[in-house]
Specification:
The complex is a heterodimer.
Chain A (H helix, E strand, L loop, with lengths): L2 H25 L3 H6 L6 H12 L2 H14 L5 H24 L4 H9 L2 H34 L3 H52 L16 H18 L4 H7 L5 H32 L9 H9 L2 H39 L9 H21 L6 H25 L5 H24 L6 H7 L2 H18 L8 H9 L18
Helix pairs in contact in A: 1-8, 1-13, 3-8, 3-11, 4-7, 4-11, 4-13, 4-15, 5-9, 5-11, 5-15, 5-19, 6-7, 6-15, 7-8, 7-13, 7-14, 7-15, 7-16, 8-11, 8-12, 8-13, 8-14, 9-15, 9-17, 9-18, 10-13, 11-12, 12-13, 13-14, 15-16, 15-18, 16-17, 16-18
Chain B lengths: L1 H31 L1 H5 L1 E2 L2 E2 H38 L1
Antiparallel strand pairs in B: 1-2
The chains are: A mainly alpha, B mainly alpha.
């Protein structure tokens, strides 16, 4: 592709993002605005924002790359990433909003009345956030390299700078507008070129996709295990992602939180039809791209070529860049929120005002994963994101599900379960990233840990709660009322416990 | 109060059970019954049609059903409380 066109696309998205962020700055005044947009975001805007935030490098580039390489089995990634919202909807959406907490650690503390559980949750939020941010920077590097020929590190650095500018300038309020804009940009950027690609395919006499449909995986045993483990990780992991949860606090009430989630299901389903078709066309037209994440970026140039191919390629690159910017913004804000609240404010820097602490947190939230990505961690983008889901499913999923629906959960049980789930899945992640895994049974177990780490975490939480010495928190009955009753009813919800007004 | 939580939990578990049965059956079906995997409609293999497209309306439908039922349960509960 012509590098000038590629640069123009990337620059346009970056500048537009920064401009919308600056617009948000004018109406972002208080600390509460910074974190959760003062909870005044309606379901339609919020659903677009959640969609914009959620569709990351893995959705935009990674899925099509995996489908090209491994075939139909990889369709479980987008299916799982959508179904995760259905599970979130039925198990946590409304109660979580009603808990009145800002972040996952807030929820943990409100429910279990324990600082230790809060600290552990904060640690896990950072871990999951960093794990999820790392492949975004990698994806940005791949994109910049593919469309402009510039060195790989440059893409990650550009994304980091724009995201930091936005987060530091406007916090969550500006990010709501940015995210909503970016969902629609991404949908357009992936759909419009696809229409032209399908016209070319049709013009070629609609060659059958059937011949290319067979998965290339050889050993069916581990493949079936991988699929089920992936299903478990994605279905249960979505609710435990920090940048997803923080969005739910911006709904006005529990009922709106449900409706927002339903709209998100529709928006995601609409989007995820597209990468699958890119993957299928890629198997037909560009099988040489197997094992890389670039098929979405390169297909327009390869199939159409000329000025038209360049223009469509630039549009796709713009969409991909929007994906990195929006996901990174959301993750940065949530990790920064937790870092500033639990680490910066409580250390000797405690004299810092809320907003300053948040800005410091944002810098730390971005630099660590950027460093990891630049240091050369090299896992396919969608796989790396899949690992973040596995950790979330093994830690926050049991905490949220048991915390919301079972009175018997104790602080000791939660702590033990988070430790077991976090250690097991974290160990698997480190081995997967560091070692060069094979397709044997043991390697497959480590590459897809959710099938054993999630049950282990649940069992630990329940067993330690029931048989351990810990006691059920005193305020649990009132908290259950708060979580499950509609807001307009006049019932005893206890003191405004969860929200730490800053 | 306990009955409200119980009925909401029952509803949630029902939706998850439907999701689990429908979805959990698919990978096994595609692996164990080669005929299903290789069947094609209009040149597109069945797994691609189901996983690439059909599954999304199903998820949306389940979500819609859940929201309707959950709001109905809360409405009935509100009526009950406000009558007291």
């Amino acid at each position: 592709m012509n590098p000038g066109v590629g640069w123009a696309a990337i620059a346009t998205v970056s500048v537009a993002t920064a401009a919308i962020g600056a617009f948000g700055l004018r109406i972002s005044r208080t600390t509460s605005d910074f974190y959760v947009a003062s909870r005044s975001v309606g379901p339609k805007l919020n659903a677009s924002a959640i969609g914009g935030e959620y569709l990351s490098a893995a959705s935009f580039l990674g899925i099509a790359g995996l489908i090209l390489t491994y075939g139909a089995d990889m369709l479980w990634y987008p299916v799982g990433w959508t179904a995760g919202y259905l599970v979130l909807l039925v198990l946590v959406a409304a109660p979580l909003r009603r808990s009145g907490a800002y972040t996952l650690p807030d929820f943990a503390q409100a429910r279990l009345e324990s600082i230790a559980v809060r600290r552990m949750s904060s640690l896990l939020v950072c871990l999951i956030g960093w794990l999820y941010l790392m492949p975004q920077f990698q994806g940005a590097g791949i994109t910049v390299q593919t469309v402009t020929g510039a060195p790989r590190w440059l893409g990650g650095v550009v994304v980091a700078v724009v995201v930091l500018f936005n987060a530091v300038a406007g916090g969550m309020r500006s990010i709501t507008f940015v995210q909503a804009f970016q969902y629609w940009l991404k949908l357009t950027a992936i759909t419009l070129p696809l229409i032209f690609l399908l016209m070319v395919w049709h013009g070629d006499g609609s060659p059958s996709l059937a011949a290319t449909a067979q998965p290339v995986a050889a050993d069916r045993g581990p493949a079936l295990y991988s699929t089920y483990s992936l299903i478990l990780a994605t279905f249960l992991g979505t609710m435990g992602l920090p940048h997803v949860l923080v969005r739910f606090y911006t709904n006005p009430d529990g009922r709106q939180a449900r409706r927002t989630t339903l709209a998100v299901l529709a928006l995601l389903g609409l989007f995820y039809v597209m990468p699958a078709i890119y993957g299928a066309l890629g198997r037909l037209y560009t099988p040489d791209l197997a094992g890389r994440d670039t098929v979405v970026l390169e297909l327009p140039g390869r199939m159409i070529g000329g000025v038209g191919g360049d223009a469509l390629g630039a549009l796709v690159a713009a969409g991909a860049f929007a994906a990195f910017l929006s996901t990174c913004s959301g993750l940065t804000v949530s990790v920064a929120g937790v870092l500033s609240q639990d680490l910066v404010s409580r250390s000797r820097l405690g004299v810092l005002r809320g907003v300053t602490a948040f800005r410091l947190g944002a810098v730390a939230a971005v630099l660590v994963p950027l460093g990891l990505a630049l240091a050369g961690a090299d896992v396919p983008v969608a796989n790396a994101v899949g690992l973040a889901f596995a950790v979330a499913a093994s830690t926050f999923c049991p905490l949220l599900v048991l915390g919301i629906w079972w009175r018997g959960l104790t602080a000791a049980g939660a702590l033990a379960g988070l430790a077991v789930g976090g250690t097991l899945s974290g160990f698997a992640v480190v081995v997967t990233i560091v070692a060069d895994l094979d397709s044997g049974w043991l390697d497959t177990l480590l590459a897809q840990p959710a099938a054993w780490s999630v049950p282990a975490a649940f069992v630990t939480m329940v067993c330690v709660s029931v048989y351990g010495r810990g006691r059920v928190p005193a305020g649990v009955a009132r908290l259950m009322v708060r979580l499950h009753t509609p807001e307009h009813l006049d019932v005893d919800r206890g003191p405004e416990a969860a929200a730490h007004h800053r | 109060m306990a009955s409200l939580i119980r009925s909401q939990l029952r509803l949630a578990l029902l939706v998850i059970a439907v999701l689990g049965v429908v979805v959990a059956a698919l990978p096994a079906l595609f692996t164990l019954v080669p005929g299903v995997r290789e069947a094609a409609i209009g040149g597109v293999p069945l797994p691609w049609i189901v996983l690439g497209f059909l599954v999304y309306p199903l998820l949306l439908g389940l979500g819609w059903f859940y929201v309707r039922q959950a709001e109905r349960t809360e409405h009935d509960f509100s009526d009950l409380v406000e009558r007291d």
